[in-house]
Amino acid sequence: MALVELVPNFSEGRRQDVIDKILAAMKEASTAKIIDSRADPDHNRLVVTIVGEPEETFKAGFAGIKTAAELIDMDEHQGEHPRVGATDVVPFVPVTGITIEECTELAKRLAKKVSDELGIPTYLYEAAATRPDRENLANIRKGQYEGLKEAIKTDPDRKPDFGPSELPKAGATVIGAREFLIAYNIYLNTDDVEIAKTIGRNIRHKNGGFAYCKSMGFATKPYVQVSMNLTNYKETPMAMVVETVRNEARRYGVAITETEVYGMIPVDALLDAAEYYLQLNGKWNRSQIIEKKLTEME
Amino acid sequence: MALVELVPNFSEGRRQDVIDKILAAMKEASTAKIIDSRADPDHNRLVVTIVGEPEETFKAGFAGIKTAAELIDMDEHQGEHPRVGATDVVPFVPVTGITIEECTELAKRLAKKVSDELGIPTYLYEAAATRPDRENLANIRKGQYEGLKEAIKTDPDRKPDFGPSELPKAGATVIGAREFLIAYNIYLNTDDVEIAKTIGRNIRHKNGGFAYCKSMGFATKPYVQVSMNLTNYKETPMAMVVETVRNEARRYGVAITETEVYGMIPVDALLDAAEYYLQLNGKWNRSQIIEKKLTEME
């Protein structure tokens, strides 16, 4: 069975009846499960985490976008968080049994359907981007709803991937695919924050470290923390990062006390670690895991 | 969701129609899945592996025992493998979300039902044993069907836990609960089998090693192998065993090339290893795993 995570961001974090209607529409439209939803009144934004089979997350996504377009008028919207539409951004994230390429196809198909059926301009981003400058969400959201209203008409670079070059009251929606992001912290048995900061710099992409690692050191108590976002655990595995931090820390006579996953993690990221450390190499197949076998039989 | 593995052993490995009827009866009686079934003509024995929710494995077990009793006459049975009944032995094995104690309760309930409704004497073994000498299956099977026929009537020590002190043509059935057994091999980069044999001896329970490890060294090619049965991965975790073998091997200047799980393994055994090596301690909860969260919501 394939599982996708969909994380639609809606521009409504205050009116509970609107929030409820968006959530209800997504629940009704599909068998995908809403595993988390957070409404932030200051940001005036609702972030929903949905997990399910690929087509089911697609259905939930469309239902959410449709309902948000009916209930949210971007001319009335105010909030701290940058946004361009009633449904601002919708990433498809592979969890298990599906590739980023397949998620990209889902994203493109959803963007086209949203533009065709709802008349909303859509932009493709990250792995689904059709141009390098659209891989980065910030470029697409430049000027926000208010600025895009004019730019979409006049600037050829701001032309959407699908739909009209004119913003309706629902604004535009950015749809794409990205790898699962693991928020991961490693604690070191020292109160010297400089050690955490140095290691945080050394292991991150920006400074010559791992390609899919963004990291910083923080002065947490009682022990300092190397805090990171692992943006592609398949290419930059947790085990490789942990062992590198262990080696770097050893240079200062410091050891890892424990590590921390912040939020959710796909089981595959942990199975990768088990296989790495137990040295399960060529003689091993994940279908030997009872639970995987049961899922395959369904 | 709780998952149990049931591994009924039937005294029929030759007549395909009988094998088919036993399998069909178990399939029909429950939603539990038959993930493996092996009929051995020499042993004249059928070993079935069933996985499902606890009550479903219970139903499958009863249906299999009932059908085997109708179709197998132990007075006619011959085979190399020791056995006392048409259904010889039925262990309940916890896979996930269930304790060995709960599996023991299932075993006791099944044994009582089999005796009450089918008139078959039943013995409880391993974790479900009511007496220390019945923890070991070999003690219960002593003399096999032919010997037990007399002994059950005359020897008070052979009195069954449930049912009559007289064997019907279906013989007796041994029912119990045990932990999941992981067949696990570790390869060392040497062709010196003495190193594997020494390590195999040092780490096993019999020689002062791990309580739930049975191990031996073998001269496999190109590298030697420490072969083991881990009979309780919760108490004797894979990571602890691997790291001990690594240390022992280092004494001889030898390293682990890879390891091998032979057959099935519960995902929890691998998650234990991931947590051990990644040092996911107090700040970690398995409900952060997306797939576990989905299962919990069902």
From TrEMBL, chains A, B:
Xref: InterPro entries: Formiminotransferase_C, Formiminotransferase_C_sf, Formiminotransferase_cat, Formiminotransferase_N, Formiminotransferase_N_sf, FormiminoTrfase_cat_dom_sf, FTCD
Main localization category: cytoplasm
Formiminotransferase C-terminal subdomain domain ranges (all copies): 180-293
Record keywords, A-Z: Cytoplasm, Folate-binding, Histidine metabolism, Transferase
Known pathway: Amino-acid degradation; L-histidine degradation into L-glutamate; L-glutamate from N-formimidoyl-L-glutamate (transferase route): step 1/1
Pfam hit, one: FTCD
Keyword Transferase belongs to the record: yes
MF annotations from Gene Ontology: glutamate formimidoyltransferase activity
Locations listed in the record: Cytoplasm
Domain Formiminotransferase N-terminal subdomain: from-to ranges: 2-179
Keyword Cytoplasm recorded: yes
The protein's Enzyme Commission number: 2.1.2.5
The protein's name in its UniProt record: glutamate formimidoyltransferase
